Amino acid sequence: MKVLIIVFFIFLTYSAYSQDIVPRERFGEIEIGITYEDVIWVLGFDGSKISKESAPEMLKAPLEELKIDFDFVINFRYIMDLPITSVYIKDNLVVYFTISSYPEYNQFICQDLKTTVGLRFWDSLQKVKELYGDNPRALNYNSGNLKYYAFESSGICFGIDNDEVRTISIFDPDF
């Protein structure tokens, strides 16, 4: 019985730990620096692979502004336990990835997610500034209502739509 209780607490601790969004590092098992093959293993399928040259502006513009190079991006949809929507690969390693409350089925998954300092999806831009600093870099590229704000030294970028955090992207500027 003791062993079962210990295993249960380890599981709860790991589950809670793995759901934090850690700037410059990871979300769950998706981490900056893991291989393309590891991404496929963790997420369970290939997704849609798009070369840098073929990527639409909405996928590559934020990275170009942040001066993050990539060889290809993998788009993921319909992952029922992780709201990862895009993973960018350079030299077979993850250099940037996005967690998104879009599309609608990701909203349920995202409601309990938070960054290590407590920022949650649907928090305001003011809350972002309170937790990360008053001087985010407003990226020139916007996608519809989505406006991007990057904290480059922290390795995190937020997509804000109607004053709500709707996407969170992780990168390591020193990687």
Characterization of the model:
The chain is an alpha+beta fold. The chain has five helices and twelve strands. It has one domain: protein yfey like fold (Sandwich), CATH 2.60.460. The chain is 29% helix and 34% strand. The strands form two sheets. Strands 4-5-6-7-12-11-10-9 form an eight-stranded antiparallel beta sheet, sandwiched between helices. The longest helix is centred in the N-terminal third of the chain and has 17 residues, at 2-18. Residues 3-18 have low confidence and may be disordered.
Main features:
globular, 5 helices, alpha+beta, disordered N terminus, eight-stranded antiparallel beta sheet, four-stranded mixed beta sheet, 175 residues, 34% strand, protein yfey like fold
**CATH topology descriptor:** protein yfey like fold
Helix content: 25-40%
Identify the strand order in the major beta sheet.
4-5-6-7-12-11-10-9
The overall pLDDT average reads: 88
The general outline is globular
Radius of gyration: 16 Å
**N-to-C terminal Cα separation, in Å?**
45 Å
SSE-based structural type: alpha+beta
Tally of domains: 1
Fold blueprint:
Layout: H1 2-18, E1 20-22, E2 26-27, E3 30-31, H2 36-43, E4 48-51, H3 57-66, E5 72-75, E6 84-90, E7 93-100, H4 104-110, E8 114-115, H5 125-132, E9 137-143, E10 146-151, E11 156-161, E12 164-171
Parallel strand pairs: 1-8
Antiparallel strand pairs: 1-2, 2-3, 4-5, 5-6, 6-7, 7-12, 9-10, 10-11, 11-12
